[in-house]
């Protein structure tokens, strides 16, 4: 049972990390998706910059210890995907991807407003 719970937490953890990377791009299509992504980014910044503990890592490590197994971060990220000495580089790469996603989101948001104003010239007058 502990292993199943740990696998569910691991899948959730992986989903969060994937959403952290691509969530800003999802907001290009669904504008309101930016708000949960901002929360995900804020939490990630809190973990990296302030040192907040990651609840998913803590839960998974505890459950994996009870099951006598390794955790998601230990097994899949730090040993397989990238060596531990590249943690800073990977974090900077994620920050760069999120920045590009947000820049694109702002650009698309601005172009939608401009195109709406061109379609309805009275919209400019009403918004001012």
Detailed description of the structure:
The protein is an all-alpha fold. It has one domain. It has six helices and no strands. It has helices at residues 2-29, 34-50, 55-67, 72-81, 87-119, 122-127. The radius of gyration is 20 Å and the shape is elongated. The model has no long low-confidence stretch (mean pLDDT 78).
Please tell me what the overall shape is: elongated
- Biggest beta-sheet profile: none
- Let me know the average pLDDT: 78
Note the run of SSEs as H and E.
HHHHHH
Tally of helical segments: 6
Strand percentage: under 5%
Number of strands: 0
Number of domains: 1
List the helices and strands and how they pair.
Elements: H1 2-29, H2 34-50, H3 55-67, H4 72-81, H5 87-119, H6 122-127
Salient structural properties:
mainly alpha; 128 residues; elongated
Short summary of the structure?
This protein is mainly α and 128 residues long.
């Amino acid at each position: 049972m502990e292993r199943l719970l740990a696998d569910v937490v691991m899948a959730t953890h992986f989903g969060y990390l994937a959403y952290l990377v691509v969530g800003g791009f999802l907001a290009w299509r669904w504008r309101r998706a930016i708000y949960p992504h901002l929360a995900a980014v804020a939490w990630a910044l809190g973990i990296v910059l302030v040192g907040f503990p990651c609840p998913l890592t803590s839960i998974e490590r505890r459950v994996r210890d009870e099951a006598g197994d390794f955790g998601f971060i230990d097994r899949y990220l730090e040993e397989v995907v990238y060596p531990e000495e590249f943690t800073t580089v990977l974090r900077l790469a994620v920050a760069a991807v999120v920045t590009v996603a947000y820049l694109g989101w702002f650009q698309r948001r601005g172009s939608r407003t401009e195109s709406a104003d061109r379609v309805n010239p009275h919209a400019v007058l009403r918004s001012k």
